[in-house]
Amino acid sequence: MATMKRVLVTGAGGFIGHHLVNRLKREGCWVRGVDLKWPEYENSRADEFDLLDLRKYDNCLQATRGGIDEVYNLAADMGGIGYITGALADIARNNILINTHMLEASRLNGVRRFLFSSSACVYAGYRQRSADVTPLCEEDAYPADPEPGYGWEKLFAEELCRYYWHDYEFDTRIVRFHNVYGPLGTYEGGKEKAPAAICRKIALVPNGGEIQVWGDGKQTRSFMYVDDCVEGLMRLMASEYREPLNLGNDRLITINGLVDLVCEIAQKRLSKIHDISKPQGVRGRNSDNMRLAQVLGWTPSISLETGLEVTYKWIQGELKKAGRIPLKYAAHGAD
Ligand SMILES: NC(=O)c1ccc[n+]([C@@H]2O[C@H](COP(=O)([O-])OP(=O)(O)OC[C@H]3O[C@@H](n4cnc5c(N)ncnc54)[C@H](O)[C@@H]3O)[C@@H](O)[C@H]2O)c1
Is 182-221+251-287+302-329 assigned to CATH 1.10.287.130? Predict the structure, then answer.
């Protein structure tokens, strides 16, 4: 009889980690989740869930104890563009501690394979100055000019994974996510990303009202639905590919376009008020998925319309439950 795969997911109280735990359980794995906090919106299905601060080495040894086959290291101090441009020292220090200690503890505890979650923020800023950006392929991270703080520590941790293979033949996978969104993600408080923030703002204003948009709204990005993200993660873990790999959608859209899409889903006509004093990050960023298709034989396929509809309805439902949407415009498509 095949033995059950034993998997550790760090950051299991967070957005992607929680979805990944659900999927791993459906696939029949034994799962340990670790985080500083419980999942915010529903209970974890992990077989074990430990509250641990992974900046501390002893806690990383504890997290990886007892014969773990695979580690998905998703724990990180991170948030939307306002957060990652405002807390450079904290983010860099916290994440360097988590990643170095998790790598070493995993190696010493005999973990078979370790996946590190990197980010499109590692890509060089000088390649992202135009809204009509050329999609970024994996080599475009060098010569290095990543996002200050968050991008630098991700790029360093990618290198560290390579060194662990070079020195110890410790088997690592490196994924570069491009803007993941979906239900059960943070949608307010400062750590939320653009799609969730836009859904919240649109749910909270009546038809005919105003929505504040950060920057001039002409900055461009691509967005991947969380189910595609989890599928790609599991495929990468199962692959033999050890170099950094993009995992994102390659449909480029402006932030104004994203607002218009959510307005259509909400059936609201709103005026956009642009606040150019707010951070907007690089001017344009898109994922080149050629290598992804070659390596995994697969690319993300869930459309932005489908994913945003699920996400909007979930955020609207949460706000309704909290009594924050006045009844006169609470109904989907009302007024
Ligand atoms: N969501 C995206 O669009 C995106 C884009 C690029 C990269 N990523 C990366 O993917 C991973 C998961 O992102 P997410 O969107 O699920 O974020 P998230 O913030 O929802 O989840 C991260 C989790 O890590 C936990 N954490 C932070 N510090 C910790 C510590 N010291 N010890 C233990 N746990 C700690 C947090 O409590 C949180 O639950 C992160 O590494 C992130 O940098 C995400």
Answer: no
* pLDDT over 70 at 95, yes or no: yes
pLDDT at residue 157 is higher than 50: yes
Catalytic, out of 150, 225, 312, 329: 150
**Residues 114 and 154 sit within 8 Å (Cβ to Cβ):** no
* Cα distance between residue 170 and residue 162, in whole Å: 9
Q: Does domain 6-180+226-247 have CATH number 3.30.2350.10?
A: no
Q: Can you list the alpha helix ranges (DSSP code H) found in 10-131?
A: 15-26, 57-63, 81-86, 88-108
- Taking CA atoms only, the protein residue closest to ligand 1 atom 37 is 36
Q: Would you call 83 a catalytic residue per the annotation?
A: no
154 burial type by CB count under 10 A (0-12 exposed, 13-18 middle, 19+ buried): buried
Q: What are 216-229's pLDDT values in tens digits?
A: 999 999 999 999 99
**Cα(215) to centroid of ligand 1, in Å?**
25
pLDDT tens-place string over residues 278-333: 988 899 999 999 999 999 999 999 999 999 999 999 999 999 999 999 766 644 44
Range with the lowest mean pLDDT among 95-104, 180-189, 248-257, 323-332? 323-332
φ and ψ at residue 231, rounded to 5 degrees = -60, -45
Q: Where are the domains of the chain?
A: 6-180+226-247, 182-221+251-287+302-329
